[in-house]
Design a protein that fits this description.
This is Major capsid protein. It comes from Aquimarina algiphila. The protein is an alpha+beta fold. It is built from three helices and ten strands, in the order H-E-H-E-H-E-E-E-E-E-E-E-E. The protein is 19% helix and 29% strand. Strand 2, helix 3 and strand 3 form a beta-alpha-beta unit.
């Protein structure tokens, strides 16, 4: 179950920066490791990228990586502001929208090569210069197809006295068109 969600989030991120697939690089202060923090201003800038694509406000979704979510928490704490707008439910959905984005928190977001702003393939080895990004998309341009679950059972034999059982479930999530899928990646200082 977790694997299919990891693949789905990976599929919904922009492959590379194009006019219809914006990738934003963070602009916050140094976090002490040479990485620029993700700040609320970056969310507003990403909203403007979606506004420029003339996408309706309803259906915009932002999936924050754990690192970017923590950056927003630190920004609020440093400014001595409340973090109530960043609280989330057990499914990882933030209870309030961020600049019009329905926002989720997800631990296993895709990785991007920072120098080229290209998404790493699913399961690729992470190298120096690769950073985990947050993913954004316009939900009306995405599709999900959940196929049948096929069960396989082997009855016990004289050699094998156990029932063997397996199941296969087909599931796919992809953009309908290459439009309105985006990403936010952390810049180097």
């Amino acid at each position: 179950m977790v694997s299919k969600h990891n693949k789905a989030v990976h599929a919904l991120g922009a492959n590379e920066e194009k006019p219809t697939t914006p990738i934003l690089v963070t602009t916050g202060a140094d976090d002490g490791t040479g990485r620029r923090r993700f700040v609320l201003k970056d969310v507003a800038t990403h909203k403007k990228q979606y506004d420029d694509l003339k996408l309706p406000l309803m259906g915009r979704t932002l999936v924050l990586s754990s690192e970017h979510y923590n950056d927003l928490l630190f920004e609020c704490l440093d400014a001595k502001k409340t973090t109530d707008h960043l609280s989330y439910d057990e499914a990882g959905m933030l209870k309030q929208r961020l600049f019009g984005f329905e926002t989720y928190l997800y631990i296993d977001c895709p990785y991007y090569t920072l120098s080229t702003l290209k998404k790493k393939s699913f399961g690729a080895v992470i190298e120096a210069g690769d950073v985990q990004g947050s993913v954004s998309y316009f939900s009306l341009d995405m599709f999900r197809a959940s196929g049948l679950t096929k069960n396989y059972a082997d009855e016990p034999t004289t050699q094998n006295h156990a029932w063997l059982y397996n199941a296969r479930h087909n599931y796919i999530v992809l953009p309908k068109k290459e439009r309105a899928v985006g990403a936010i990646v952390s810049a180097d200082v």
